[in-house]
Amino acid sequence: MNDTDNANVIHLTERQPVVTGPEMLASLVPPPQFDDATFESYRSDDAYPSQAESKALLEKFAGRGAPAKRGGFFSRAKKEPELKPGVYLDGGFGVGKTHLLASIYHAMPARRKYFGSFIEYTALVGALGYRNTVDLLRGADLICIDEFELDDPGDTMVMTRLLGELVTTGTRLAATSNTPPNALGEGRFAAQDFLREIHAMSDSFETIRIDGVDFRQRALDGHAVTLEEVEYAQRIADTAGTASDDLFGDVIRHLAKVHPSRYIRLIDGLDLVGLREVQVLTDQSEALRFVAFVDRVYDAQVPIVATGVSLDQVFAEEMLGGGYRKKYLRAISRLNALTHSAQQPSVA
What are the TM regions of this chain, as residue ranges (predicted)? Predict the structure, then answer.
């Protein structure tokens, strides 16, 4: 069965999004699901004190810390050490790092501030050129970088140089990071890897460790939801603004033709993404592109329906034991949440 004859169904494989430099710059804001993220709405887990401690430190970084108490007439107020111009949020997936990053963005009283994924910033450099990007971002009060990638040494060097130039003009930085190749990343080595890779900037970052378990899995049981073909076809037919292609493999091949920074445009205007006949991914490049796509779908909070292999089983077993383990596990967590949200009447 296919959806070719259904005029209401959008085919991802037919979309070839183009994004201009100015559009990229204008889009550097938190994802819709974090439009209202605040420190107050961050629900820390009492079992992991580092979550509440991190929130307090980040509130101070954002300029919301309690003022120092004044001493008596002859006493001097204790001067607290100044925070570094950058903070790096280190921790596993699903502990609320992006929520806290967005909270910094919303709380800081900045005239110019930007929030984007690492991929979005490097795509901006690719579209406008390095010098033009520096000129555009110079003078910004705050730059937030979600999912700072350490996989590509060239991109890492470009971003390190870019941030170095901005810090010297007073820009403050906040970042979360993914794990580099060959580092399993769920222990306490992520911060060490991050600082090593951005060695020219490492002294500018204060590392803040956030422990905890994946909040998405605390709320879910079992596996990602998989539908039979008849139920899948009915859901596609009943939902306006739905994307569905004949085969999962077609979508995966199409992702190779679109730059990851444009994946968000693939799902513009969609209320549901359908993935038919999901198969296990065994090619690393295909799997990582799918991870980047899932990240954008999750940011937009678009539910997913699927047939075939359960999406929590989409990555080959050997991949889950390799250097990109943390990325795959985060994607599985998000896929699980998105397939469950598709079973609800609406998505928050």
Answer: none
Domain positions in the chain? 9-18+216-341, 46-212
pLDDT of 77-128, one tens digit each? 455 556 789 999 988 777 889 999 999 999 998 889 999 999 899 989 988 9
Give the Cα separation of 111 and 117 in Å (integer). Answer: 20
258-277 confidence digits (pLDDT tens): 988 899 899 999 999 999 99
Rounded CA-CA distance 50/209 in Å is 7
Please enumerate, as own/partner, the contacts of 36-45 that have beta carbons within 8 Å and a separation of 24 or more: 37/99, 37/102, 37/103, 37/106, 38/103, 38/106, 38/107, 39/64, 39/100, 39/103, 39/107, 41/99, 41/103, 42/96, 42/99, 42/100, 42/103, 43/96, 43/215, 44/96, 45/212, 45/213, 45/215
Inter-CA distances, 223 with 219, 230, 307, 333, 337, Å: 12, 20, 13, 10, 10
* pLDDT (average), residues 41-63: 93
Report residue 264 as tokens.
């968000």
Supply 304's token pair.
């997913």
Q: What is the pLDDT of residues 318-328, one digit of tens each?
A: 988 887 887 88
What digits encode the pLDDT tens for the residues 268-323? 999 999 999 999 999 999 999 999 999 999 989 999 999 999 999 999 999 888 87
Architecture of domain 46-212: 3-Layer(aba) Sandwich (3.40)
Sign of the CA dihedral with 264 first, then 90, 172, and 164 last: negative
Q: How many helices (H) and strands (E) in the chain?
A: 14, 9
Chain centroid to Cα 273, Å, comes to 19
* Of 56, 165, 128, nearest in space to 143 by CA: 165
The dihedrals phi and psi of 15, each to the nearest 5 degrees, come to -95, 130
